[in-house]
Amino acid sequence: MHLRARDQAQLAAETRRFVSDPEETRRAVEAVSSAWRGPDVLVNNAARTAPGSVWDVDLDEWDALMATNLRSVLVLTRLCAPAMRERGWGRVINLASLAGQQGGLVAGPHYAAAKAGVLVLTKVFAQELAPHGVTVNAVAPAAVQTPVMDDLPAEALRRAADRIPVGRFGRPEEVAALVGHLAGEDTGYITGATLDVNGGLFMR
């Protein structure tokens, strides 16, 4: 199912509001756990961007973006991972970004800082949960072709794609395929890792 850009933006806004409220998040996890059981897989994928200079970032905006992009990873993992630990199996996948590795400013300095924090939290939780059969990994995409790009100038997009070694933007299904793999049965020996989906923009 492909959402229109407007519908996608509305869903994203509702998700950001939800994950920024720890109490609402807790109630939702409790409702799911009561109706079924605690989650086996958690994908932390809520994010927001706010382009601008590091010198001009409003502090309230900084705090709001950190609540969505970084604090939500802490809150949701602490809510969901204990049940995984008790069962002896679970998967946590955190969506990070190339910006969190290189300090890119296109999405805003606070976005990059938050995504760097996601990479550290991934390692911290991975160390805590590894003995209990729960893996925690991060996926770090670069530019991915989404409806957000539909309103951008074609020439600017072409120049950006030309700077990517594979010569194109990523596709959402390529990121989703990696997340799906990490959520599977055959990835119990992968934990604390950051897996890049960037077309060769950042090679390690």
In short:
This protein is 50% helix and 11% strand. The chain has 204 residues and is α/β, with parallel strands linked by helices. A 4-stranded parallel sheet has the order 1-2-3-4, with helices on both faces.
Word description of this protein:
With 204 residues, the chain is of the alpha/beta class. Helix content is 50%, strand content 11%. The protein has 7 helices and 4 strands. A 4-stranded parallel beta sheet has the order 1-2-3-4, with helices on both faces. The chain starts with a helix and ends in a 7-residue tail after the last strand.
Low-confidence stretches: none
- How many beta strands in the DSSP annotation? 4
**How large a portion of the residues is in β-strands, by DSSP E?**
5-15%
Task: Classify the secondary structure makeup into a structural class.
Answer: alpha/beta
Name some characteristics of this structure.
single chain; 204 residues; alpha/beta; 7 helices
Helix-strand blueprint:
Layout: H1 5-19, H2 22-35, E1 41-44, H3 59-87, E2 90-95, H4 99-102, H5 109-129, E3 134-141, H6 154-162, H7 172-182, E4 194-197
Parallel strand pairs: 1-2, 2-3, 3-4
Helix pairs in contact: 2-3, 3-5
